[in-house]
Amino acid sequence: MLKTPPPPYSRTNVDRIRPEDRAPSEIPILTRNCYESLTTSGDSQMANPSEWCKLAYWELQERVGPLFPVDSPFINVFGNVSERLDGWSLGELGLQNHKATESVLKTRAKIRLGVTLSRELGGSVWLYNRSDQPVFVSSLYLENGLGGPGPIRVPAEHCLCIHAPGGLQTYGWENFNCQGPMGDPNAIRVSFVKGWGTKYSRRDITSCPCWIEILLAPCR
């Protein structure tokens, strides 16, 4: 069984997303090359790993599968891949949606290696885009840090800090409304391949074919 090492990354090699990699509504942000980050072999810095988030997978306005609890320092979220990976398979979950549209099926096929979510010592959460397609991320931390609403486009092989303690992100997946999309307004949302917002044809994430919510656990 193939396993992906935890992604403690070097903080020395930084690069900016090129202007052509950004949506018109975005401003420059610092990222790092994903493969440089994931090839280090350091041990986890989490002294006492415990459940720090739950994941919800959505296809358009329909949640597919149950909430997935995460108690390890990092988690792989991937689509249909030939390799046997540890983590959360959206490809397998998607088979439960017998009403999937053509756009959902096409997008699901492009997720492949997907993303790795990593919670570091101190509580910061990083997203590593391991696929060959962009992902789009929205969180209160990013909105407040970058000066406005709207998703941030993370190109293939790049990573981004999507939450940090004290960044005005609130907590509470315990109150998550499992009956409808966007039940927790403070969740971190990630759309695969397709973006949304005022600069896109999809005005809301519920119009995106495949997306996930990261529901952070309360402070411990």
UniProtKB/TrEMBL annotation:
UniProt region (Disordered), positions on chain: 1-22
Segments forming domain MH2: 52-220
Gene3D superfamilies membership: 2.60.200.10
Highest rank taxon of the organism: Eukaryota
UniProt KW Transcription keyword: yes
GO cellular component: heteromeric SMAD protein complex
InterPro entries, per the entry: Dwarfin (IPR013790), SMAD-like_dom_sf (IPR017855), SMAD_dom_Dwarfin-type (IPR001132), SMAD_FHA_dom_sf (IPR008984)
Keyword annotations from UniProtKB, A to Z: Transcription, Transcription regulation
A molecular-function term among this protein's GO annotations: I-SMAD binding
PROSITE patterns recorded: MH2
Compositionally biased intervals (Basic and acidic residues): 13-22
PANTHER family: MOTHERS AGAINST DECAPENTAPLEGIC HOMOLOG, SMAD
Protein name: MH2 domain-containing protein
